[in-house]
Amino acid sequence: MKIQNFVEVLNADFFTGVPDSQLKCLCDYLINTYGVDSRHHIIAANEGNCAAIATGYHLATGKVPVVYMQNSGEGNIINPVASLMNEKVYAIPCIFVVGWRGEPGVHDEPQHIYQGEVTLKLLEDMDIKSFIIDSSTTAYELNEMMRESLSTLTKGKQIAFVIKKGAFEYEENVKYANNNVLTREEIIKCIVSVSGEDPIVSTTGKASRELFEIREMNKQGHSYDFLTVGSMGHSSSIALGIAINKPDKKIWCIDGDGAALMHMGSMAVIGANCPKNLVHIVINNGAHETVGGMPTVAASINLAEIAKSCGYVNTVKVDSLTQLNLELKKAKTSNELTFVEVLCAIGSRADLGRPTTTALENKINFMSQIVK
């Protein structure tokens, strides 16, 4: 189905969401049509944030908003859907568009397998009527789904379109870029070089994939790294839990701007606990690159200043390898909580692979080094 037909049938003029590779056609269409225009399109920090923004839109206009997201974000909407939007509370109508990663019977990455199995059940448990869209769905069938849903929306309930892989097509291309120079891969190579045999916790997406391949190229093995393949936004909290319990080890966290924004409250918790052995590095390209490149708001804010306000002792923002290498070496020998924001270009190698070990193997290898 052409994405234009899908959007036309929805008959909505406000969209908010967190980008997903399964919904790339929709994301690109929204960028081409609206850009990031707060009256029509907001890219939010997390999916719960989307649900609240959508609620505000309905309260102000009486219209039905659209929230788009990957199915991994269902957990983030459970609270606002159940305690805010539900018809027994404020009865806020909403259309959810959910990318179905880990669909049963379709090969996907390990972090998506269980989430894919429970996608429809979670929607059912939240009393959200769901419709499945695949490549064979016609505009007529979609119109019938919407017609069937009108009474549901009128009652202040929510519906969801669950999107299978390849369901949409869109002819227009969107080029996502910025003016930064450093690549994420060379940034991570620098971190690996300075950190030595210290444990590293890396965020979900391409950062962990690149870290894995750098270890392969260096013939170093993978026991020093915990690759957070799922649970976007929680790598720094994992690193905090390790750092507090291993005060004799320097713990490094490789984070991304989208992930840091998704659960920014974790920075305040880290600052309050102030582990002297933690180095938190945020690679900021101002984009959700792993799922297509749509922008985050991180390009227009200073994450290092936010970290300083949260209680990080040493904070710095860098944009060159020379600066980065210098600051990492300082952090290596420092006995204070450190935050490094590194400005980064958008893009990665076309032949970037994925980890060849399982998530469970990664955990066992990592713990064999750190639990001693």
Describe this structure in words.
It is a single chain. This protein has 372 residues and is α/β, with parallel strands linked by helices. It has 14 helices and 14 strands. It has helices spanning 3-10, 24-34, 47-61, 74-85, 110-125, 139-154, 184-195, 206-218, 235-245, 257-262, 265-273, 303-310, 321-333, 359-370, and strands spanning 15-17, 41-43, 66-70, 94-99, 129-133, 158-163, 200-202, 225-227, 251-256, 278-284, 287-288, 294-295, 314-318, 338-343. A six-stranded parallel sheet has the order 2-1-3-4-6-5, with helices on both faces. It has a six-stranded parallel sheet with strand order 8-7-9-10-14-13, with helices on both faces. Helix 6 (139-154) links the parallel strand 5 (129-133) and strand 6. The N and C termini lie far apart (55 Å). The model has no long low-confidence stretch (mean pLDDT 96).
Sheet with most strands: 6 strands, parallel
Q: Could you tell me the radius of gyration in angstroms?
A: 21 Å
**Overall strand count:** 14
Strand order of the largest sheet: 2-1-3-4-6-5
Instruction: Give the SSE string.
Output: HEHEHEHEHEHEHEHEHEHHEEEHEHEH
Query: Which regions have little confidence, pLDDT < 50, spanning 5+ residues?
Result: none
Structural class: alpha/beta
Give the N-terminus to C-terminus distance in angstroms: 55 Å
Average of per-residue pLDDT values: 96
Count of helical segments? 14
Helix content: 40-55%
- Shape assignment: elongated
Strand content: 15-25%
